[in-house]
Amino acid sequence: xxxxxxxxxxxxxxxxxxxxxxxxxxxxxxxxxxxxxxxxxxxxxxxxxxxxxxxxxxxxxxxxxxxxxxxxxxxxxxxxxxxxxxxxxxxxxxxxxxxxxxxxxxxxxxxxxxxxxxxxxxxxxxxxxxxxxxxxxxxxxxxxxxxxxxxxx
Amino acid sequence: xxxxxxxxxxxxxxxxxxxxxxxxxxxxxxxxxxxxxxxxxxxxxxxxxxxxxxxxxxxxxxxxxxxxxxxxxxxxxxxxxxxxxxxxxxxxxxxxxxxxxxxxxxxxxxxxxxxxxxxxxxxxxxxxxxxxxxxxxxxxxxxxxxxxxxxxx
Amino acid sequence: xxxxxxxxxxxxxxxxxxxxxxxxxxxxxxxxxxxxxxxxxxxxxxxxxxxxxxxxxxxxxxxxxxxxxxxxxxxxxxxxxxxxxxxxxxxxxxxxxxxxxxxxxxxxxxxxxxxxxxxxxxxxxxxxxxxxxxxxxxxxxxxxxxxxxxxxx
Amino acid sequence: xxxxxxxxxxxxxxxxxxxxxxxxxxxxxxxxxxxxxxxxxxxxxxxxxxxxxxxxxxxxxxxxxxxxxxxxxxxxxxxxxxxxxxxxxxxxxxxxxxxxxxxxxxxxxxxxxxxxxxxxxxxxxxxxxxxxxxxxxxxxxxxxxxxxxxxxx
Lengths: 153, 153, 153, 153
Description:
Mean pLDDT of chain A: 97
Low-confidence stretches of chain A: none
Largest sheet of chain A: 7 strands, parallel
Oligomer: homotetramer
Strand order of the largest sheet of chain A: 4-3-2-1-5-6-7
């Protein structure tokens, strides 16, 4: 029997440049290597890069999609959940994650950070929003994963 | 037949001091006097003060509650909608409002600002979060209402 | 100050024939005459007919739309709330209503009946689904409104 | 890299007798043996029995919980997703599943059947609700799984 998965959220925009994608990939890979599953919004950009990193390291990737089409998920998502909830699914991503790592990102990412902090979830920012000091600040993908895992042990 | 109501969101924390409540009251009153209905989270603090201001000026107050009990609404809500969605109802508040006025507030308020901006909705900050320059800055309740109404005409 | 509105749900399909629409119109009108606001899905068919009946009698009509565009509401909705939740908004309609009247209808209507009964809400069926005897059976629009109002007094 | 999981919903009440639990267990086991992941509400009764069957056969079990506490999941859930959406999560279960098997069950189960049929998802009834002939009728757990898998190939 498979053990209960530990779920860490990786959040960020649906479009990003190559440097940001590389960091998201490394975050996903390191989370999978640490035995965690990645929860994300299931789409492109930061989400796709983190999904790929996790999936290529053999990890599970849960994609909570805003729309109703599972085929909208990026190809590295292993469990595609079309929620049909639109942006309200951001609240589900925040709740489903033990801790979250935000990488760059726009308004959707900020909403997820706020929804997570509202519930007291640890959030690590890697070149992302940092509305107050309770959001931890990481200097590298490795550091981001270390900080996130330290909060949930 | 009653005309379609114009809905302006008023967002802020469920607990606040008397000075903040006075500003929220005035925002609610001015919105009702301008013929707008107030959309809010239906609970206490900023929400209750804005609700009272709008209701006492004869306006309609829509309370989108996070829980499933309509009796959790503050007494000034005229339409109490228990959504049962928890914090995911913040996304509904953002979508239902043509424009939003944020008054002080914590993580829940920040999530609503971000969800509204994600959808391109105008947001006015009155002593609240202002994550970037696209969030308008008001210096008084009167100014906040003027800015909000100017965006939706 | 306006009093707290009593909310009665009227549910049914987004397309219907003239005979069903006439019954939905009468249900909406009688609810408004009894001082209740109508909660519905805000679209066409049964929803539009009930909305028109209520609005023309001076009542308030709350339209909880599945999509994110308030302009999708039928013209008789006085408070258009685009939820962006898709079919998950059916759960909000069930929770927001003190009692519900189902008129004809398809799968969406059945889901609303079931979600309402799950929460112990009274449901009246007027030529609609009646999954078990706890769903009240009405023989006319007048009878449906009488049954619904009797359950919530 | 793990392949995209095929998700089949198993729905039914949070409390059930031993005979129903045995059938749910077998459905879960057979789905896992066929290489499918089980999506369910994550709680007790039919959900727990199906989860156990799937998990003991090495399968993945996605529990979409109504509340906000992941620890409310039954011990056989491998991916616990607290949605915080209340009964609105039933719409997510319906959307996330390629096909659904309903086992006994009450109003919540009926709402999920209706929400699934609304979206054209195949539903198999094993001693459960069968609102119309489009819901397939199974005579055994083995038959239920065969019918469900036949619809999604």
